[in-house]
Amino acid sequence: MADKINYGIFPNPLPDEEGNTTYQVRHLPYGTMSEKEFLAHLKYHNTYNTIIMQSSLTVLKNEIIEQLRDNMRFRIDGVGTFQMKVGLKTKYDEEGNPIKTHFTDPNKITANDVEVQGVSFTPDPSFVKALKDRTSARNKYGRGPAGRNKSYTREQIVEFIDNYLKEHHSITRRQMQFALNITEYRAQKWLDELTAEESSKYYGKKQGNTYVYYRYDKE
């Protein structure tokens, strides 16, 4: 029997050229398998030596980093290719708020303005084909309204964030999106509005490619 793709249907934040609301589908993962869980899974379902596997994963990770530092792409046959992502450095004002770097003259961009911002991964076609094979789809929300459209008041959002931060210390847009069953656009809009308010209780810090949000009195 084919495995099922768990997906939801979401409205796009902007209408099309004729003013109509359009929709997209997105994968809704059940969670993330950690390295610890992966090794436990191997130990339970296979005869692999998990100590050797763990060492191999460490060697592989370090080798990928080393090759990317040498400005090389790193390809694993049948899996895909890793490549360094670079961009302009994030700068901050006197209050620690991020400032979008802006250049109008390309000749003024120097090495001091460039930083590593992440790693891109391009899957091997055979890897994607193997994923597609024996796979069908399942709509988590059924045939009813599009997913993640629930409305909240400002007071409800603030109460949720405060309670979440008491337990988890920080929150990301993605965590808020899935916890409240709302769209990516709405979650980010709420976070932008709350952090931009005068005497705001919240602020965001960029960590890698993700903004992480805190309360000023809770970090």
Q: How many beta-strand runs?
A: 11
If you compute it from the alpha carbons, what radius of gyration comes out, rounded to the nearest whole angstrom?
22 Å
Q: What is the distance, rounded to the nearest whole angstrom, between the alpha carbons of the first and last residues?
A: 48 Å
Major β-sheet profile: 3 strands, mixed
Overall average residue pLDDT: 85
Question: Helical region count?
Answer: 6
**CA-based shape:** globular
Determine the fraction of residues in helical runs and give it as a percent range: 25-40%
Q: Which class do the helix and strand fractions yield?
A: alpha+beta
Unreliable stretches, pLDDT < 50, 5 or more residues? 144-149
Strand content: 25-35%
SSE order, as H and E? EEHHEEEEEHEHEHHEE
The side-by-side strand order for the widest beta sheet comes to: 2-1-8
List keywords for this structure.
single chain; 219 residues; alpha+beta; 3-stranded mixed sheet; 3-stranded antiparallel sheet; 6 helices; 11 strands; 27% strand; globular
